[in-house]
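Before the break, one more example. Copy the sequence into your notebook; we will annotate it together after we see the structure.
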Amino acid sequence: MSDLEQKRRDTPSMMELTISRLKSAVPLLLRKAKKQLAALKSKKSSNAQQPQEQDGVPEKAQEPPEDDKDGLEDLKNFSEGENNREVEQEKRDLWPVDPALLPKLELKRHFDSSKFADITIKTSEKEFKVHKIVLSCHSEYFARMLEGRWKETVNNLVILEEEDPRVIETMIRFMYEHHYQHEDETTQGVIFHTMVYAAGEKYGIALLKTYAASKFENVLHYCFRTIDLPSVIAAVYTSTVSTDKVLRDRFSQVVKRRIEHLMGDERFMEMLEQYPTFSIDMLESMIPKWVLARDHSSSCCHHDHLAWSQDNSGWV
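Here is what the structure looks like once it is written out:
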């Protein structure tokens, strides 16, 4: 279901609004009617007369009791509130879409229709008619390409046939929609988010990296017991650069929480040997930060000894 359909479904109908207003108005109306009835009975019993003039000055009309004032004030406020709600409903009827969603909706519409497209991205399976302004706004790589006199700029054709077509399509869609859907909660799903993250790094799309890292971590938490961990380790440490620690740190933190169950796994121990950087990341994730940040230059001969905690939560 799209955001627009969900918003329309969540918006109450006119019938629901009318029923809600009547429910809130009934107590006030009953209260007012009782007060008016009591006032009439009091007037009949006392045979009240109209105010008489004394010395040419009309007698001041009797003010309503304090309770009646409160009731009138409540009705006045209720009426003003109803008018405001009617105005807001008219605005929603005339403007049914949240203005904040309009840029995304418009971009998605142009991507789906290829309207006003001025450059093509070609993969081994598919071509995408896209817009230079969208590419340059989201991607540092494409911004440099379009600002310079690259061959792709002259021909208005970018060939990415060596890249994974699914990853490129996901990357392009993200630039138009600011999100992507991939519900595979298996090893391949975790690896896919890893590849999307790597594409965000390669093409300079910071928002895509953040989004993919979050998806990666969520799926990893959910299906950690069922994934092929060595395959994920290989994907993370071959597709990301050593200077980019975001995804690697998130991965090592998740693995650290299960380290007690993994230490007896031969394949896991083999991966520690095969990927030394992974071993270092795991070690750093388990050593307290204050130890890593300590300056040992002034006490090089007096090092504290670390011991593994009894609850297997880390070094102490």
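The chain has three domains: 7-25+68-96, 100-179, 182-295+306-316. DSSP finds 16 helices and five strands in the chain. Try to locate both features in your own notes.
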